[in-house]
Write a structure and sequence with these properties.
Strand order of the largest sheet: 7-8-9-10
Largest sheet: 4 strands, antiparallel
Number of helices: 1
Strand content: over 45%
Order of helices and strands: EEEEEHEEEEEEEEEEEEEEEEEEEEE
Shape: globular
Structural class: mainly beta
Helix content: under 10%
Radius of gyration: 19 Å
Length: about 300
């Protein structure tokens, strides 16, 4: 899959509709302009006016955004053994900030144009556009029961449903931008985190706030649920925290020595987690002991 600027390109083959991506140089002929979008034969893509603001500047001045670039690139698919077709989605009018699969042929994307869009990759075509956020959408997560949760710089998270068009719940409580969202494995709960340094748990059915988890000393940048309903969070404070069902920290990882953590993912069996940070390495963590199991 290749995302350039605010567009999405999907390569498909008849014999293998969803081949595994490979890390290869971009061969689309597009030129990525740092902070200024991407250029191709169709002309320049307008730059996001918030580009070029660092996370530190964003925390110091919530009136500005923290985009590293107006272009989001994912490695292209490997050359298929049979002739392939290509489809390009170009509906987002500003940079694409997050993507998530709902199923092998349904993709959800979020962008700085304040929109959440649902795509049919088999078509290909846009199925739905969710409107409601009043700020750039920074994150999106999909869960069981066709649940979609989005987080935004408007300080809210919102609950949507695949197949619908209207926002079902507005999750209000954060005092700063929401940078991360996640949906539990059973689809009943959501988690959000952001600039206010808190992690908040929500009941998806009612939209009520279940718990506020405090302890991080900087922006909560990424969240993931474990299979048993516990939550792990990553932060710019250079730590990861595993939260128990009672809202207390069961384990803290990193000890402030791993750089600002930007993303985290949990293995399907919830045995380990992988974090990605500003210092470069991917770190693997044993969730039972809290000890690093290695780095990539």
């Amino acid at each position: 899959t290749n995302y350039t600027g605010a567009s999405v390109t999907v390569n498909r083959t008849a014999t293998n509709p969803m081949p595994r991506p490979a890390v290869e140089p971009d061969t689309t002929g597009r030129t990525v302009v740092p902070g200024g979008g991407a250029r191709d034969s169709l002309g320049p893509v307008p730059a996001d006016p918030d580009d070029g603001v660092t996370p530190a500047q964003a925390r110091a001045s919530p009136s500005k955004a923290a985009d590293a670039s107006a272009a989001l690139l994912v490695a292209p698919l490997p050359t298929p053994l049979v002739e392939s077709s290509s489809a390009q989605f170009a509906a987002h009018r500003q940079s694409v900030s997050a993507v998530a699969f709902a199923d092998p042929f349904t993709l959800v994307s979020a962008g700085n144009d304040q929109m959440v869009r649902v795509w049919d990759l088999g078509g290909p075509s846009e199925k739905t556009c969710f409107r409601g956020h009043s700020g750039a959408v920074t994150s999106v997560a999909v869960g069981p029961g066709d649940v979609v949760v989005s987080g935004s710089r408007d300080k809210t998270a919102r609950v949507w449903r695949l197949g619908g068009t209207a926002c079902e719940k507005v999750l209000m409580g954060h005092t700063g931008w929401v940078f991360a969202v996640a949906v539990s494995h059973d689809g009943l709960s959501a988690a959000s985190g952001g600039v206010d340094k808190t992690l908040r748990l929500w009941d998806i059915a009612t939209g009520s706030e279940q718990r506020v988890l405090s302890g991080h000393e900087d922006t909560v940048s990424s969240i993931a649920f474990l299979a048993d309903g516990r939550v792990i969070s990553a932060s710019y404070d250079q730590t990861l925290r595993l939260w128990g069902h009672d809202g207390t920290v069961e384990c803290s990882f990193g000890g402030g020595r791993i750089g600002s953590t930007l993303a985290i993912a949990v293995s399907p069996d919830s045995v380990c987690a992988v974090s990605a940070g500003a210092d470069g390495p991917l770190r693997v963590w044993d969730l039972e002991s809290g000890v690093s199991a290695g780095a990539l």
